[in-house]
Amino acid sequence: MSYVKSALLEEKGFVILDRYDQGADPQEWLDLEYVEWKSSGDTRFAPLASAFGEIEVNGFWNHTPPRTDKDGVWIDSQVAKAPHLVQRAMEPGANVGRCRVIELQPNDYANTLYNLHQDDNNRLNPDGSGWIVRGFFNLTDDAESFLTLREDRFNPSSEIRIPLPAGAQIIVDTQRFWHAVWHKGPAPRYCLITSWESGPELDAYIEKHHGTNLHENPYLDPQVIADAQADVQRRLAERSASLASRGRPDDHPVDPEA
Ligand SMILES: [Fe+2]
Questions:
Q1: What does the pLDDT read at residue 244?
Q2: 194-213: burial string, b at 16+ Cβ within 10 Å, e else
Q3: Where is this region: Disordered (predicted)?
Q4: pLDDT tens-digit profile of 128-178?
Q5: Which of 12, 67, 79, 145 is deepest in the core (most CB within 10 A)?
Q6: How far, in Å, CA of 199 to CA of 186, rounded?
């Protein structure tokens, strides 16, 4: 047995869908209730579906009983404020786990690289079921910001930078990719993130919205990349030394939960 995966996602680990007409919808994300939750930067989250329908965003495996990132419970008070967002998360008809809006304050490229992490969406997901992937629907217009993906955390040549204008829709295997968003600002970025179970429903949805993994990276000056790489290595070394001085192992260089 093995997990059910989408062919397009399996090939490159991401799929870009048709751009959504975000401007036609109200800015529902501004009405939602947010909770403080630091993850890959200066962030807050507004959950729409959570483990038990509470306004919290912890991984489903951190609850009792622990379970994988499926069967999220919709939060009535949040759903009432964001019907368009909920409709979009439910459109594929695939099982939905966590569904939330992330608010990300501006950062820089070096911080983005420092924040790169892999998700753990498939913890406790039984073999033979659908692999959990994540949809990223950019809500604010951040065309100069990039969803930054790396197959190899410290190898810039594996980097994929996908621009995030309003309505950008990307599905990512976030357990495969090291990922973080480089958000240039100046205003906070908002994005709907939904955990979906791979399967025929998600495949049909990808096809309907002309999913493609053809992508060309926007140019980034090699010196900017080299400087940021060096900065990350320095910060990681400092962090490791600081932990060692307190007798603690450095087993999680960055927060793995996002
Ligand atoms: Fe993540």
A1: 85
A2: bbbbbbebbbebbeebebee
A3: 236-258
A4: 999 999 999 999 999 999 999 999 999 999 999 999 999 999 999 999 999
A5: 145
A6: 38
Distance 185 CA to ligand 1 centre (A): 20
**CATH pick for 7-245 out of 3.30.950.10, 1.10.260.40, 2.60.120.330, 3.40.50.720:** 2.60.120.330
Q: CA 27, CA 78: separation in Å to the nearest integer?
A: 13
Q: How far is the CA of 221 from the centre of ligand 1 (A)?
A: 26
Give Cα 123 to chain centroid, integer Å. 16
Specify which residues 43 forms β-bridges with.
104
Secondary structure class of 49 (helix, strand, coil): strand
Ligand 1 centre from 121 Cα, in Å?
Answer: 9
